[in-house]
């Protein structure tokens, strides 16, 4: 993983996924570039000119959705924006965790910084200061259709800017006005176009995708170290990872995974040659490059797609200062993110699927040649018996979650908005799949280390580091003990990227 930045300068064009994660989880400070501020000022001047001329422009001098044909003028132009936020802040369910909220704020700031939205500089800076000072709006997770933007989630974010709703500051739950006062900010009054500019975007789904992608990459790289440990524990055959084999089926991910496996196993005395113990390994060992590699290729595709979305204009209407055009379109539609999230969920779930099969091979004496369930005194002790049950349960849960949300659509706004992406649901499911996969990998990690303890010989370059990292916090299992704490520690090691090198 790349080194995390100490400051992220947003200009709307160059925000990286790693920077989103840093802002979200490490509270990295945000700044706007001078160029982006100038663009914001120019687009704002367009809005003010249209209002002064009483032009008919969607969301500025008209209502929203089905009410797009209803004109709004005079003082009501400002009231319209505040009404929009209050009426749309109707999400339900448990609130998003702080990292998702912060990622959402950072992504919306970056989109507005591109200068196509018509927001005032002071309004945008208010959101920047909220993020930098740790004001985190309470945003319910349910309620977005993933088209017309993530309206309900983003409306809850904006409520706090108005001194309404709820927010946390230093994990303390406060009203919106109390939260602002706690950090020295005051509520703002929205002007023409600003409410729409703040909530018309894909930032709830994209925020979750950024975090899930980052965690998925750690899971993938960790899976290959852990799989290498299992190969050693079962005295597998690394010849299946020979570059010649993967050159003739030139999928980049497959080639990279095979290369990584060989690097992790370099110098190992625990592996065997073809024909030494067996002619070839079972698929869960032999086909790791093909399975993990397909996941790797999927992750790279999704990473590119989400990186593009991080620096996109997802408003409606969009203001073009150079031509003077105001164009109503559908850049808020979350279909690209919905497909990406569903695709990645399937790909990451397969890491768990094949991992559970390797765990079964480790604990099953008929398949491993090791003591049953990796315990020295089977019968009196159950050892790792039930850990495989847990992995199987979680893998089954992932299979249910991998049904794509993006194949569904329900019309809304009196059928004016008659096709939606459900992308935010896709992204929420994805985060659960990634977390579940990390748990399954942790189970294999613990079982592989236990299995290694029954053998002799030097471990490989990568597997020895991974083994030592685990054994530094979890001792070998001799007698039965409560396994939950061990599994949780192993999961934390995987989550933190401890196995990466």
UniProtKB/TrEMBL annotation:
Contains an active site 4-methylidene-imidazol-5-one (MIO), which is formed autocatalytically by cyclization and dehydration of residues Ala-Ser-Gly. InterPro entries: Aromatic_Lyase (IPR001106), Fumarase/histidase_N (IPR024083), HutH (IPR005921), L-Aspartase-like (IPR008948), Phe/His_NH3-lyase_AS (IPR022313). It catalyses: L-histidine = trans-urocanate + NH4(+). Its EC number is 4.3.1.3. It comes from the Bacteria. CDD domains: PAL-HAL. GO terms for molecular function: histidine ammonia-lyase activity. PROSITE patterns: PAL_HISTIDASE. It is found in: Cytoplasm. Keywords: Cytoplasm, Histidine metabolism, Lyase. GO terms for biological process: L-histidine catabolic process to glutamate and formamide; L-histidine catabolic process to glutamate and formate. The modification 2,3-didehydroalanine (Ser) is found at residue 148. There is a cross-link at residues 147-149 (5-imidazolinone (Ala-Gly)). Belongs to the PAL/histidase family. PANTHER family: HISTIDINE AMMONIA-LYASE. This is Histidine ammonia-lyase. It comes from Brevibacillus reuszeri. The gene is hutH.
């Amino acid at each position: 993983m790349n080194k995390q930045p100490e400051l992220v300068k947003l200009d709307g064009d160059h925000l990286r996924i790693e920077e989103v994660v840093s802002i979200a989880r490490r509270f990295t400070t945000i700044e706007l570039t001078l160029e982006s501020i100038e663009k914001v000022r120019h687009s704002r001047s367009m809005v003010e000119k249209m209002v002064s001329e009483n032009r008919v422009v969607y969301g500025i001098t008209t209502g929203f959705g089905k009410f797009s044909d209803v004109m709004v003028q005079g003082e009501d132009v400002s009231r319209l924006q505040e009404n929009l936020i209050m009426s749309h802040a109707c999400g339900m369910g448990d609130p998003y965790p702080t990292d998702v909220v912060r990622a959402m704020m950072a992504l919306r700031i970056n989109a507005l910084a591109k200068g196509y939205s018509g927001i005032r500089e002071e309004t945008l800076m208010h959101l920047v200061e909220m993020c930098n000072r740790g004001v985190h709006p309470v945003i319910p997770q349910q309620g977005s259709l993933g088209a017309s933007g993530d309206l309900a989630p983003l409306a809850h974010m904006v409520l706090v800017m108005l001194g309404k709703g709820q927010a946390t500051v230093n994990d303390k739950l406060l009203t919106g006005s109390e939260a602002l006062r706690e950090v020295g900010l005051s509520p703002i009054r929205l002007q023409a176009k600003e409410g729409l500019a703040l909530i018309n975007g894909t930032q709830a789904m994209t925020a979750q995708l950024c975090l899930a992608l980052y965690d998925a990459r750690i899971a993938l790289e960790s899976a290959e170290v852990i799989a290498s440990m299992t190969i050693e524990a079962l005295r597998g055959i690394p010849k299946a990872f020979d570059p010649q084999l993967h050159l003739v089926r030139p999928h980049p991910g497959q080639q990279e995974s095979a290369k990584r496996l060989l690097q992790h196993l370099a110098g190992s005395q625990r592996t065997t040659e073809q024909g030494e113990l067996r002619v070839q390994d079972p698929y869960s060992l032999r086909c790791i490059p093909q399975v993990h590699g397909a996941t790797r290729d999927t992750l790279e595709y999704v990473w590119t797609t989400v990186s593009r979305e991080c620096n996109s204009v997802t408003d409606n209407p969009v203001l073009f200062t150079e031509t003077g055009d105001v164009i109503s379109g559908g850049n808020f539609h979350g279909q690209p993110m919905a497909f990406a999230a569903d695709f990645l969920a399937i790909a990451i779930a397969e890491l768990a699927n094949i991992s559970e099969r390797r765990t079964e091979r480790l604990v099953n004496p008929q398949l491993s040649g090791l003591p049953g369930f990796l315990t020295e005194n089977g019968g009196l002790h159950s050892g790792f018996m039930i850990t495989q049950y847990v992995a199987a349960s979680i893998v089954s849960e992932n299979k249910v979650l991998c049904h794509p949300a993006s194949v569904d659509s329900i019309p809304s706004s009196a059928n004016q908005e008659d096709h939606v992406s459900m992308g935010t649901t896709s992204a929420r499911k994805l985060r659960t799949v990634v977390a579940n996969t990390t748990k399954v990998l942790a189970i294999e990690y613990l079982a592989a280390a236990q299995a290694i303890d029954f053998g002799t010989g030097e471990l490989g370059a990568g597997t020895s580091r991974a083994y030592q990292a685990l054994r530094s916090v979890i001792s070998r299992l001799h007698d039965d003990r409560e396994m939950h704490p061990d599994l949780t520690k192993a999961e934390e090691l995987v989550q933190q990227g401890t196995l990466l090198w």
